[in-house]
Structures are given as C-alpha cells and as structure tokens.
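Input sequence (389 aa), recorded before submission:
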Amino acid sequence: MGYRSIITALSASALVLAGCGGSSLGQSGGGQSGGEVKIGLLVPLSGVYAPLGEDMRNGFKLYLDQHGGKLGGRTIKLVTADEGAGPQTGVPAAQKLVTQDQAAAVVGVVNSATALGLRDFFHESKRPLLVANAGADDITGARKSDYVWRTSFANGKVGAALGPAVAEDAKGGVYLIAADYAAGREMVGGFRKTFEAAGGKVAGEKYTPFGKTQDYQPYLSAIRASGAKAVYTFYAGAEAVSFVKQYKQFGLAGETPLYGTGFLTEGGVLDAQGEAAVGVKTSLHYSTELDTPRNKEFVAAYRKAFNEPPTVYAVQAHDAAAVLDKALAKAPGAEGDALVKALGGVGPIDSPRGQWSFDADHDAQQKYYLREVRSKDGTVVNAVIRELK
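Predicted structure, token format:
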C-alpha cells in the first residue's frame, strides 16, 4: 500500500477540511437520545478492492437487519461512501461523511494509507473511526488516537501468530517471500520475530515488485536452490492466486510446505486457486469452519442473506456493528467524546471469530487459528487445525 510517503500531505489536507467544518463538527451527528443516528460506512465499492468492500457492507448490514435496523436501541441511518482504490478517493469520501452527512461515527476502510491519512481528521473532529480492515501496525501503534479503533487486525500480529508453529514444524530453514510494500514487510517482520525467537532459521528472504509480478518462476527456482524445508509468504488478491497456482505447477507444493497469513487463501482468492491451494497452511482470526454454535449460526444467516459463505472481511464489519451496538447504548446523544468513552467500556464481543476485546491501544485482542486448505464437499475450505498460542 506504500502509505508512509503520502501520510503527511493527506493529514494536512484533512486538518484544513476539519477547520472548514466550522460549528457543524460541534453537533452531535446523532440527534437526541433515543432518536435516529447516522453511521457512515466507508468501503471500496469500485476498483480492485471492491469485493472486500462488498463483503464488509454485507457483514455490517446483516447485523443491522438482525437487530431491526437499530444499534443500542437507536434507529440507524446508514450512509455509504465509496473508498475507491486508496486515499485519493477514500480520504475526501470520509471527510464528507462527517462534515456534510454528519455521521456520528464512521466504519470501514480497507486501505491502510486511507486509514492513516484520516487519523488527524478524526482526532481533530472528535468523531470515532472504526477501522474494519486496514492492517498497518501504526494505526494502533505509533499513530494511534483516542478516536481510532480497530475491529480487524494489525499486520505484524497476524504473521507473529504463525512464527512459533512453523519453527516447531519445519525441520530446517524457512524461506520468506512477500510482495514489496508496507503490508508485505510488516507481515514478514511479525512472523520473523516470533519464528526466530522460537529457534527457527531463515534460509532466504525476497520481496517481489508489488502489483507488477506475474511470473514467479525465478523466485520459485531460488526457493528450491536455497534448500529451504518450508516457505512463509504474504500475498493477497490476484498475486495470491498467481503465486499459489505457480507454486503448485512448479512442483514445490509436494515437497516444500507453504505457510502464509490467511489472506493468501481467503474468500474469492481461494475460489480462484481451487485445488492448487490444498495443503497450504495459514494463520488468521477467522474461518467459516470454526466449530462453534455462534459461528455456525452466523454462517447460516450470511449464506441465507447473500447466497455465499462469509469472509473475514464480513466478520470484521459485522463486529464493528456489534461494537457500536454496545457503545451507543451507553452514549446518550451519540456525542463524539461520549461515544468514544463508551467504546472504551464495551467489554468482550461475542463474535463468530470467538470472543475478543479491545486492548489498551484500541486494537483487537483476539485468537488466531492455524488453518489448512482441504477439499470438502466438492469445494475447498480453510479447515481449522487448532488455536495458535
């Protein structure tokens, strides 16, 4: 996502618009206690991330539908805006949701550069932003804010969850390969830290040009030549499809186990990979195959509503609605500071992914699962092997 180079300019632009908002930002955005509350939903409805945006919108709307269109006993008017492909479209769309549409809170954001570019705007506007996907570590790290909360994940933590398991399973060096952008490096960095701490050895490390690599054969040849006993990777979207398919075609799948973060085999990506993905092991905080009453109920309801299985993106947005449900019940008037205070007291969330809660940095403190792609009833699924420690 290459977000660091554009954050300063975007933040300055956001502050200017926040200043231009005038007294409108002092209004509640939610009306009187018990009345209608506007919630902004900022997700990509166009561009390469549109499938994720659709999943997130579906997850949020399912929760609303299941609760009679209300959160915290308040009727919700959902105002949706298109994040597009990144901050150039996402930042002004979010600003409009607050300054013109008067949303009491905004939910969504796929792109990390968008989230980081909006940080100062929401901080100065004193309105909560609930990030339901963007994974940059800095969102709840170096650039955390009282007004920014995350119901999804931090990139480094998804990778870190898998490190000890791979160190235990791999009998020899592990090759690290990922797309060369911020998310790729954070996913690898988190993994490497816990992997090496658990005694794992790195056999090689390579970052491929992001969004430009189609032929992975030279990289696969290097992996084979390294003598690595396993591979850890981060790819998502079309790159994940290409890498996994070529990994299989090159013959590595049968001899060198492939591990990655769950985005490697999630949702439509797994559908496109098909049988080529069988055997790939990943870490993630959700799978449709979690064997709990709460998840089974959620999967059934989602399939009935949208005629397809849910993804982690849908769950993250669904949980953002659950968070607001609890917070709005404790925040009369839906005022910014009152709502933020209420967010700090929502406690555990009973989620399809398993119970989780916000940590001190407003990040999701949650379980991660070791998943393996397996064939099931004529399709492929991310079977849950066990919880990762």
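Checked by second reader. The radius of gyration is 21 Å.
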